[in-house]
Amino acid sequence: MLFKGNCTALVTPFTKNNKINFKVLKNLIEKQIEAKTSAILILGTTGESSTLSMEEKTELVKQAKSIINKRVPLIVGAGSNNTQEAIKLSKTFQSLGADALLVITPYYNKATQKGLFLHFKKIASSVDIPIILYNVPSRTGVNMEPKTVVKLAKIFNIVGIKEASGNLVQISKIIKDAPYDFCVYSGDDSLTLPSLSVGCCGVFSVAANIFPTEINKICENFFKGKIQEAQNLHNKLLGVFETLFCEVNPIPIKTALNILGENVGGLRLPLCHMSAKNLHILKKEIKKVDYF
Question: What's the pTM?
Fold first, then answer.
């Protein structure tokens, strides 16, 4: 198992000039490790990978690898709707020392289930490190069905899936039919606890950017059988979970980090600032958790 518990989907901090802020990146990573986060993901959706150049991605992986220094697994987003581009990214990030790759389903193309299988099979054959599939239909326009996931799970280095379909029945079917050592991770903070209850190994969390200790404890308490404690934390954070997705991710989470003084900078277009109404709600929900 690559990791059990929480993997924080880290934001990419920017300077005032919209360049990657590596000083702040180091601070963010150190806080995650101090909070006992199980793994760290960079270049995911939350990390604004779609607006980073190849040069920026390469340097980000190098810097993150150096900062983490083998203390927790470093997972790197390497997906594309172009299979050859995904292979290129995967090979590059493997060479830079990524411990595993998170590979999203092809977006815009709207591939068939056969096309999805062939896409991931081809990528997996190009590298030797573990691959975690990423299914998020709301952003890609295509859902990878359980039967396709189960088929892919038989490939030796496809070790898990980040399931962000929001469908607990679908998640349950994958867990039921996939090999016992294939890990299914929740891709939705609000569904972490319900997903753990049907057999998930953990979560790729956005909220852990601001509440790493609490997200880690939800998982830890559940695995230790402290269900009531896990439920109490889940309920305490539920309003935050919902508000962090009142606008497209990562707009709310970067806004929240800036509110809390982490200075992660702005967003790259076409993402933009939150509306005044949602900003008010976000501040209110964060304050409810007694963070201030």
Answer: 0.94
